[in-house]
UniProtKB/TrEMBL annotation:
InterPro entries: Mob_Pre (IPR001668). It comes from the Bacteria. This is Plasmid recombination enzyme. NCBIfam families: MobV. Pfam families: Mob_Pre (PF01076). GO terms for molecular function: DNA binding. GO terms for biological process: DNA recombination.
């Protein structure tokens, strides 16, 4: 655990970091969720897990400054352990700007590659660059799990056997069922 140990302490640290003048709709903190696949965690030793989380936190501190991390904690209460960190999006000139802080798609892509390089020797690989996969919130994930997956149709050998429509001496017409 890094930073604030309680909600009150986190709010105090956040208020201390925020500029006095700011827009009403300004983003006050950006949440980073840093994790690996469940398969990696299944195989990882306790030392590797500890190293993964230490490096993740160090990457954030090196990138944004440890003073801008309001709080960071490891969550083990869900299927896959993860580090959740809240970082105040201050620009170099001490303005709040999540847009400038996070940057363009190219900058985010570069950040993902940089982070992947930080943990690569732990046996982790960067995700597919340019993937069209979309983020799914935890709520969306659990809602999908609750709905369940439609069972696949049972396919029997008889169901996929072509049906002969017309037999000829040198050729036949057959109908192949669609599965």
């Amino acid at each position: 655990h890094l930073g604030a140990k309680s909600t009150d302490e986190a709010m105090g640290k956040l208020r201390a970091l925020l500029p006095e003048k700011r827009r009403k709709d300004a983003v006050l903190a950006v949440e980073y969720v840093m994790t690996a696949s469940p398969e990696w965690f299944d195989k990882a030793t306790p030392e590797q897990e500890k190293e993964f989380f230490q490096r993740s936190l160090q990457w954030l501190a090196d990138k944004y400054g440890a003073d801008r991390i309001v709080t960071a904690s490891i969550h083990r209460d869900e299927a896959t352990p993860h580090l959740s960190a809240f970082v105040v999006p201050l620009t170099q000139d001490k303005r709040l700007s999540a847009k400038e802080f996070i940057g363009s798609r190219d900058k985010m892509r570069a950040d993902q590659s940089s982070y992947a390089g930080c943990v690569a020797d732990l046996g982790l690989e960067r995700g597919i660059e340019g993937s069209k996969a979309t983020h799914q919130t935890i709520q969306q994930h659990y809602a999908a799990v609750e709905r369940g997956v439609k069972p696949l149709a049972v396919i029997t050998p008889k169901a996929v056997e072509p049906r002969v429509l017309r037999k000829g001496l040198f050729s036949s017409d057959v109908e192949t069922p669609e599965v």
